[in-house]
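Posted in: Structural Biology > Protein-Ligand Complexes

Title: Requesting predicted complex, uracil in pocket

I'd be grateful if someone could produce the 3D structure tokens for the following input. Sequence and ligand are given below.
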Amino acid sequence: MHKIISLEKVLQKQGFGSRKLCRIIINNGEVTVNDVVCDNPDEMIDTNHLRFSVRGENWEYHETSYLMMNKPANYECSRKTIHHPTIYSLLPYPIVQRGVQCIGRLDEDTTGLILLSDDGQFIHKMSSPKHNVPKVYEVVCKHDIDHSQISKLLNGVQLMDEPLPIAALACESISPNTIHLTLSEGKYHQVKRMIAAVSNRVVSLNRIKIGDLDLPIDLPQGKWRWLSDSDLSKLI
Ligand code: URA
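-- Reply #1 --
Done. Output follows.
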């Protein structure tokens, strides 16, 4: 969609601060638009495929933010954390300023794919139990996982405080003590509780897929990237 707005508005919408602050940054000659310095805050800019830089850092214009992150262990998903740093500290400040939120949460010791956005409808859709977006976890267990444990996970295990048994959508053996477990819900500590319910214990947990979107192998832990249109089509 072609949208033409002032440079001041571009910066403000992308999280660089108040209109007043954005005008100052632009007037100081600290902003380039498609590689050329632009020091006029009122210059009208086509946001389609816009690339700009602020103080030497390159940015793409995104009307709405859709991101993925490979969450490292020892980070918490809440904004105000208690024991560990927050995953929001791994994002550039302007993106945090835009109000992105993570979609669902991973435990502090869980690693892997987590989505973030500032699009309320998208967040709602992705986290709503109505849509049941499947998620795949690579689970390393303390003890080897036998066939009877796999069939219990597939047939449903009774968790405390849940009215009905909960079944995995799929459970694939990867090595004697590692499985790929696919779940449609995202209940509190669900993987750990399901594995405990079959008398085993999670040693490490890595989310490798949401919907049809795989955690990219070239996205290191602690790093993030924008979701492409093709990534988004794998989610909705
Ligand atoms: N299940 C868990 O037990 N922990 C997570 O972080 C995600 C799913």
